[in-house]
Every structure is written in C-alpha cells, then in structure tokens.
Amino acid sequence: MKILITSGGTSEKIDQVRSITNHASGNLGKMITELFLQNGHQVTLVTTKAAVKPQKQDGLTLKIVSDVASLQATLEPLVKTHQVLIHSMAVSDYTPIYMTDLAELQAARDVNQLLKKSNQEAKISSAADTQVLFLKKTPKIISLVKKWNPTIRLVGFKLLVDVPKEELFSVARDSLKRNQAEFIIANDLTNINDRQHIAYMVDESTEELAHTKAEIAQKIYERVIAHD
Amino acid sequence: MKILITSGGTSEKIDQVRSITNHASGNLGKMITELFLQNGHQVTLVTTKAAVKPQKQDGLTLKIVSDVASLQATLEPLVKTHQVLIHSMAVSDYTPIYMTDLAELQAARDVNQLLKKSNQEAKISSAADTQVLFLKKTPKIISLVKKWNPTIRLVGFKLLVDVPKEELFSVARDSLKRNQAEFIIANDLTNINDRQHIAYMVDESTEELAHTKAEIAQKIYERVIAHD
Questions:
Q1: Do the beta carbons of residue B97 and residue B118 sit within 8 Å?
Q2: How many domains does chain B have?
Q3: Which of B33, B139, B143, B194 has the most CB atoms within 10 Å of its CB?
Q4: Gap from A167 CA to chain B (nearest CA, Å)
Q5: Which ipTM was obtained for this model?
Q6: Cβ within 8 Å, pair A133-B132
Q7: Cβ of B135 and A132 within 8 Å?
Q8: Hey, what's the signal peptide range on this chain (chains A, B) (predicted)?
Q9: In this structure, are B68 and B100 located in the same domain?
Q10: Is B108 on the interface with A (CB under 8 A)?
Q11: For residue range A105-164, what is the model confidence (pLDDT) as tens digits?
C-alpha cells in the first residue's frame, strides 16, 4: 500500500526570528513509518526540520514542511496519490497577523483596523514593555482531506489536555464524523510522558486502549492492514 | 579555564501545547564547546532540548533549560563559578501573559485590565476566528551577568535582520558598553545560510570578520585564550 504519514509540529512565523510552535517530537510518526516500511509498504512521511525522522531507506520518501501553508501545499497532491493518510502532525490552529505595542492598540478606534495591518520589519522591535499579537485561524487541514480525495482512508489524531475521558471520546467522535475518518487516536497530554503514552483508537462504537507509542503504532498498523 | 556557554533558543509557553520559540540550531554553540574541550578546558553548556549538542565527554557538563525563567535560575549560580561566559543562546524577548478572543478585547473598557488576567485552561480554545495574545518583556539576562559576577569575562551576541552594517556595529557597541562585554559577535540573519555565516567580532574599536561558524568558533577561542 502507499501510506502517507504526517508527524512533528508546525511553526507559524511572527517575524524572521520568532515563531509560534506546536510541540511534537515526531517519535510516534517515526515508529508508525518504520512499521509500515518493515512490512513492505511504501511510505511518504511529511514532517518538519525539528522532528525525529527514520533513517533514509528504500520505500521511504521524506517531505519537509514548516507552517500550515506549506503543509497544505505539500499534502494536497500527496493525498490524491496515496491510499491511507495517518495524520499525526500537531498542526497550528492560529497564525500571526500583526504584532504591535499597547500604545497602538489603545490609540486604535476600531480594533478591526489593526487586523488589516502587517509587520513590515524583519525583526519586530523589542522596545515596548507590552506587546499585542493578533492571530487568525489557519485552515483545518484534516477537514480538506476527503475533499481532495474522497476514497483515501483517514486516521486522525486528537490531543486534549486534562479532560475527563468522556469528553475526550466525545471530541474524538465529533472529529471522526466531521472529517469522515476511519478512526481517531485520542490522547490526553497529562497521560503522556517518557515511559507511557496512553491513547484510545476511537471509532463509532469502540475505544481500544494502548499504553505506549510502540503499542499505538502496532494497533494503527493492524487496523489499517485488517481493513485493506 | 572554566568556560560557560549558552546555545539554542528559548521557548515561552502560551499553553501546554503551544509556545513562542526563538530559532537557533545550537550548531555554533556546539562548535565553540568542542573547541574549548579539545584544548583541555572545562565547559558547562546551557542549552535546550531541541538544540544540537556535543557528545557526552570528559570536561563537559550539560544543563537543559526551556524558557527565560529556567535560563535565569540555571545561569545565576553558574556565572558565579565560571571565568568566561559565551552567551550565544537566542533568548526570548517576550513571554505570554494572556490569550483571549477579539470579543473580550472589544468589550474591555480598559485594556490594562486584560494584562492582569491569565489563562486557566491547559489548552486554549481554538473556537474564535481571531485571537489576541498579550506579551510582556522578559528580563534581559545578559544585563544581569556582571551583577551576578563582576569579574566574569562576557562574550555577547547580537542578531539583527537585514540592516546596514553601520547599524549592526552601532547596536553591537551599545550592547558591548551596556553589558560590559569583552566583545560582541554581531551578525545579520540575511548573511547566514547552510554554507556561510558572516559575523563580526565587535569591540570598542575593531570589527573582525568571520565567514563560517567554524571560523567564528576559532576566533572566539583565540580571543578568549589570548586575554587569559
């Protein structure tokens, strides 16, 4: 099979030296990639410069992206030519519009006017004691996948922080339906550390538990293969 | 000699999954560290999880920091027990105070009231189309070094983006005087790529040019040794 995997976390530039970054090591995406490669599948891994990556090997194609715009541009043609997308990348929700100091905000009659501005300087001045950064929503990449290729099989991820299990499952099932995914890996940051990574494979009616990244990778692999 | 080196870039958390990050690979700090180690000096390298690091070896102590607060807490006792600080780390200028949506900003009578708030949720909601992030200045770590230890020798760094050479030198000399540094490595991001790293060792009266990270490391080493 031709498997498309995303891993790592995107970064949205504030200026040439600062970014807003979503944290993700890339470790889980690396393990999933290696498992499919070991079993003779072709994998295209879309990841970031900072993420941990598998070694170069036959069957593996690496694509490096930085922000949501480059992810979208890279992913669209790939989604059309692969059978499965395992979308483990932590994608930025917001991207910077304009950064200014408190004085400009206080002087503004209408805040909406500031949203039409953008920073011309390559490195924003660090003179002011307080800065205000306006951000806008990025496109939801996972919601575009089935529009690009209605027949691709989609495995989604949902990371929440410190919520009851019922809420985690409910949010995962919302994503499952809205994005027409086959299943969603639902996890809570408070249950992830160096020794464990608690996650649930959530579909319409079941929630299968995994305890480690290796176990998550194995269960994803088995589900993808079983339904082939 | 006991040499203290900082490398990499700090990250300031917005919430449990997002940060504002200053980009820095850690490559130059690694080269400087290796050069001092090869010549029999003791090095303490204060760096970040994401930065490139030298291999574990005799004479090297590694300290991992994340944000400006952890950098400050880690650096203060080390500055008091080392003879030289080579401060190549890209340190965040600002740290998040409070993130909210446009509606709360528009409803606020006095923006200053919002600066007293903080986010209680572990992952800030991504429902709103536009978000507003308030940031405050972090303490200038380089300005504290001589207060912590008036006899430590200080090598500073100044990175600007796309400015005339005269402005780069002038800003570097301001930093040299204000922070009582021995010299400042002044560089412009537009002159840094995979093949070259143009930088100037700026002191009161001279600007010595280097073309690569290896050459910068060598020139720093020679200057530190020469004045010992």
A1: yes
A2: 2
A3: B33
A4: 14
A5: 0.88
A6: yes
A7: yes
A8: none
A9: no
A10: no
A11: 999 888 999 999 998 887 887 889 999 999 999 999 999 999 999 999 999 999 999 999
